[in-house]
Write a structure and sequence with these properties.
This protein has four helices and no strands. By secondary structure, it is mainly α. The protein is extended, with a radius of gyration of 31 Å.
Length: 144
């Protein structure tokens, strides 16, 4: 829940709380806040148990975390199996080095075995007429 809050930010919040509420009222405020959080948590747990009991025995494995769309999709596609789609076997069977070693060297910019880093003219984005040097491409306000 607070994984993105750093130490300096927590220290700033503590200092602000001491300044705003004062050192005398701060312990009572923390105690009241913790009691409120405990009541809310117990209310949520009671509500979850009531929902589970009302759903019946066919939903005994139901977890509320499964309602999260990411968890639901992952569970429906992958299930409880380790690798149902065989992706691990496909990854192991694909050897990129052997594919690259089988292909002959392709000349680049007319020279075999070397690469040129000269700036080439950009390819036109559409199938229309090529742009002249210095000419700006047409602007489409609906595409942006």
């Amino acid at each position: 829940m607070f994984s993105d809050v750093g130490g300096l930010e927590i220290l700033t919040l503590i200092v602000m709380a001491i300044v705003i509420f004062g050192p005398d009222k701060l312990p009572k405020l923390i105690q009241d806040t913790m009691g409120f959080i405990r009541k809310i948590r117990s209310f949520a747990d009671t509500a979850k148990e009531d929902i589970r009991s009302e759903l019946g025995p066919e939903f005994k494995d139901f977890e509320f975390e499964d309602l999260n769309p990411k968890t639901f999709v992952r569970k429906q596609l992958i299930g409880d199996q380790e690798d149902p789609l065989g992706l691990k076997d496909m990854k192991e069977s694909l050897d990129i080095r052997s594919v690259l070693d089988d292909k002959p060297a392709v000349p680049v910019n007319g020279r075999a075995g070397s690469v040129s880093f000269e700036k080439a003219a950009p390819a036109p984005a559409s199938a229309g007429a090529p742009l002249q040097p210095g000419e700006r491409p047409p602007f489409d306000p609906d595409a942006t």
